[in-house]
Amino acid sequence: MTGRRAFRWHIVVFLAPAVLVYTAIMIIPLFGTLNLSLFNLDATRERVFVGLENFRTLFGDPRWSHSFWNALANNAWFFVVHMLVQNPIGILLAALLSSPRLRMAAFYRTAIFIPTILSFVIVGFVWKLILSPIWGIAPGILDMVGLKALFAPWLGKEEYALTTLALVSVWQFVGIPMMLIYAAMLSIPDEVIEAAEMDGVTGWSQFWKIKLPLILPSIGIISILTFVGNFNAFDLIYVAQGALAGPNFATDILGTFLYRTFFGFQLQLGDPHMGATIASVMFLIILLGVCVYLFLVQTRLRRYQF
Amino acid sequence: MHKARHSPARSIAAHAILIAWTVIALFPVFVIVINSFKSRKAIFGDPLALPLPENFDLVGYTTVLAQGDFFQYFLNSLIVTVASLFFVLLFGAMAAFALSEYRFRGNTLMGLYLALGIMIPIRLGTVAILQLMVASGLVNTRTALVLVYTAQGLPLAVFILSEFMRNVSHDLKNAGRIDGLSEYTIFFRLVLPLVRPAMATVAVFTMIPIWNDLWFPLILAPAEEVKTITLGSQVFIGQFVTNWNAVLAALSLAIVPVLVLYLIFSRQLIRGITAGAVK
C-alpha cells in the first residue's frame, strides 16, 4: 500500500479525536469495570485478585442475593409494563396520527412528545405531587368521575409503587415508540395502501393485515430500545423514591441497587468492587438482550423493499 | 372507497383518542405551572383553579431565586451541553466522513467498534470512569462531564452522520480534488455545509439526554459551583419538600427553558426521526 501511494494521514486525523475520546472514556472504563469485578480487598485492605468470588457473593450470600433477585425481578416487571402498555399505546397513537387528512396531526405529535423531553427530576416530582394524598389532585379527579374509593397512596404502598412508577415512565416515554412507528407508517408507499383498498381491505383489517406486518422491524427496534433503557434505568426511581427505593425496596431496580452498592447509603459504606460486579451483571444482561434481538429476532423479521 | 376511509364516526373517534392522550400528556405540566403562581392557601384549596388576581402569589419564585443559585446552575448546564454538543458534532462528523469517504483496511470494523456504544450504555462503566476522573483530578469539574457526554454522544452521531454523508455527491468532491483542494478543505467547505440538516437532527438527539442527565452530575460533579440545573433542582426540591410554593416554582423554572427549546426545534426533531426511517 505505502509503495503504491503515500500513507493517507488525513484518515487518521479525521478518525483520531472520536476514536480516542470514545476509547478512553467509554470502552476502557467499561472493561475496567468488568476487570474490577474480579478483585476485592483482603484482610489487610490490599486489593487482590479473587476471580469470580464477588459473583459468588452476589448470587450465593443471602444478604446480597436477596437484594439482587429482588432488583432483577422488579426490573423485569418494569420492562413488562413498558412492553404491554407503552408500546401498544405508542402504536395506536401512531396509527391514528398517520391516517391521511387528519387535521391537527402536527399539534398532537408535538404535544404528546412533550413529556419525553422533560428530565426525570421534573417528571418524578410532578407525579409525586399529583399522586400525593396531601395535595389531593388525584383523589379530586377520581371524585369527579365517581371513583374516589379507588384512590390509594400508590407510591407509598409496596404492592402498587413499582407499577405506578412504571406507568409514570410509560407516560413520559410513549412519545418515542409513537414517533418511530409513525415514521415507519409514513414510509409505507401509497400504492400498497391503495391496492389494499381496491381489494376492499380498509380500517382495522387494513391495519392488522397490511400495516402491522410492514412495521414489525420498527417494533423490534422499539422493543430492544425499551429493554436497554429499562435495564439501565435509575433516575426516575431515585428522584421519586430516593436511593433506598422505598417502600421497603419495593421499587428497587438494578440501577438503584448499583448506586447504593457503589456509593453506600446510611451506615453501609460504598463498595466499588461489588458495584463493579453488579455493573458487570447488568452488562451481561443487556448484552444478552441485544444478542437475542440481533440473532434471533432481527434475522427472522421480513423486511420489505419497495 | 374514500368514504370508508374518512367516515365521520371514525374520524371523531380518532380525534377523541388523540385529544384524550394529549390531555393526559399535558395535564401534569399544566397543573404544576398554574399552581406555581398561586398562594399556598389556593394551592391546597382549589388545585385545579387558574391563578386569578385574588389568589395570585409569586412567593414561590422569590424563595427559589433567593435560596438556590439557579442562575449558576443554568449556566453550568448550558456550558456543559453546548461544549459536549460541539465536540460530538465536530468529532462525530470527522469520523463519519473518514468512514463514509475512504476505503481503508479495517473500515467496517472501525464502524462496528464505534457503533457498539449505541447499544451498551456508558453508565455501566461508571465505577472506572470515577476512578479515572479522580486519578486525573477532574472530579467536580465541568470538563469531566463534557468528556463523558462527548463519549456518550459520539456513537449515534457517527452512525447517523455517515449514513447522510454517503449521499453527498461524489462529483462535487472529485471536482474539488481536481481543483487542488485538500481533503480537509473538502470536508469543512464542501461536505459539512451539505449535511447541516443531519447535524441539526443529531444535535437535538444529543442535547436532550445531556441536559436531563442526573447520574453523571450526581457522581462526577456534585459540588455547588459546577452543579447542573437538573441536579440543582433535584437537591433544592429535596430540601424544600414542605414548601410547596417553592417546589412548584422550581419545577416550573426547570420546565420552561426545555419547553421553549423544544418548541423551537420540534419541527427539526420530527423531521429527523421521520427522515431516518424513510431512508
Automatic annotation (TrEMBL), chain A:
- Keyword annotations: Cell membrane, Membrane, Transmembrane, Transmembrane helix, Transport
| Mode of membrane association | Multi-pass membrane protein
One GO cellular component, as annotated: plasma membrane
InterPro entries with a match to the protein in the record: ABC_transporter_permease, MetI-like, MetI-like_sf
Q: Where in the cell is it found?
A: Cell membrane
Biological process GO terms, please?
A: transmembrane transport
| Membrane-spanning segments | 12-32, 76-97, 106-127, 133-155, 162-188, 208-229, 236-262, 274-296
Annotated ABC transmembrane type-1 domain ranges read 72-295
The cross-references to PANTHER family, in alphabetical order and at most eight, read: ABC TRANSPORTER PERMEASE PROTEIN, INNER MEMBRANE ABC TRANSPORTER PERMEASE PROTEIN YCJO
The record's family statement is: Belongs to the binding-protein-dependent transport system permease family.
Listed name of the protein:
Sugar ABC transporter permease
Origin species? Aliigemmobacter aestuarii
Automatic annotation (TrEMBL), chain B:
Which subcellular locations apply to this protein? Cell membrane
Q: A Gene Ontology CC term for this entry? A: plasma membrane
Origin species? Aliigemmobacter aestuarii
Membrane-related topology note: Multi-pass membrane protein
SUPFAM superfamilies referenced in this protein's UniProt entry, alphabetically? MetI-like
Is Repeat one of the keywords? no
Q: Which UniProt keywords apply?
A: Cell membrane, Membrane, Transmembrane, Transmembrane helix, Transport
The record places domain ABC transmembrane type-1 at: 74-265
Q: Which GO terms describe its biological process?
A: transmembrane transport
Entry keyword annotation includes Cytoplasm: no
Report TM segments: 12-34, 73-99, 111-134, 146-165, 186-211, 246-265
Q: Which family does it belong to?
A: Belongs to the binding-protein-dependent transport system permease family.
What name does UniProt use for this protein?
Answer: Carbohydrate ABC transporter permease
Matching Pfam families: BPD_transp_1
Q: Which domain of life is it from?
A: Bacteria
